[in-house]
Amino acid sequence: MSVIAAAEPPHVAHRDNHTHRDVNGGWLRPAVFGAMDGLVSNLALMTGVAGGAVTQQTIVITGLAGLAAGAFSMAAGEYTSVASQRELVLAELEVERRELRKHPGDEMLELAALYESRGVEPVLAREVARQLSADPERALEVHAREELGVDPDDLPSPLTAALSSFGAFALGALLPVLPYLLGASSLWPAVLLALVGLFGCGAVVARVTARTWWFSGLRQLALGGAAAGVTYALGALFGTAVG
Q1: How many Cβ atoms are within 10 Å of 160's Cβ, its own excluded?
Q2: In terms of pTM, does the model score above 0.85?
Q3: Which label site among 31, 94, 125, 217 has the fewest CB atoms less than 10 Å from its CB?
């Protein structure tokens, strides 16, 4: 079996273009969902209340209350979710650390068997497993990646997730309220600004997910608009029934 002593450096074009976005960050998902949720939920809430033929003051108070309640709820939920996930991963890492300490030989054979199952020749698989197992921390990292699918050095932060979610939700929920705070006296400026915001959020998300910006924007616009329309109709229906 021949061994390549030194690999050739990658071609410049390949090196410069073959890069990937960070898909494990703790801020992206809560920020995206927070902004979308803030826009859609507060727009729907305000249109639902407006459908009941209430005063402008009631609509504004409803929007501000929805902003505050939703932002704190999103932050608390995201913090609890990510913290629980992180604690579970840390507990599993501790289990793996104990196994590496008590049964290093068995863990090395387990790693070698894993590489063999992926097509590595048995002798080479055992040698790779032996070298990786020489350093306990490196061995833990490798086992965590292979068995748990996580990177011990890149676990999501609950605080980052909570702050991202809070800020994004508040920013999204502010859009439908903003025209009223600037002096608008009807619902339509708030609806138009919120719909523009929904399209913009969808277009921004497309830059992250590699979707076409217009498709992502129109999809979010349609979903948010449908939610606002349904809640307005329900508000009008309930307002008439109660009245």
Answers
A1: 17
A2: no
A3: 94
